[in-house]
Structure formats: C-alpha cells, structure tokens
Amino acid sequence: MVTDEGENSAPYFVDADRNYCRSxxxxxNVVSEQVxxxxxxxxxxxxxxxxx
Length: 52
Fold this sequence. Notes:
Blueprint: H1 13-24, H2 38-49
C-alpha cells in the first residue's frame, strides 16, 4: 500500500483491513514505514536549523 498520508475519506485503512480479514479469514501483519524524498528531507533539515 502506498499513501500520501492524507487518509481523510472512506474507506479508512482500519475499516478496509478489518473487512478484508473477515472476508478472507486471515489476519494481516501490517508494517508502516515512512519514506521521505531527498528534497523533503533537505527541507525538513532546513526548517530544523532555522531559528525563529
């Protein structure tokens, strides 16, 4: 699953996961990992170094 983390409308992951598991009779192991693009990483680093 790939997401922009803007889960602001249905179907929400928790509901879709629950329905999938019930339908197929399985239990999923879910691992969440956040991946940032290099440009975003540099932007966040710049913000962290900026004095307000």
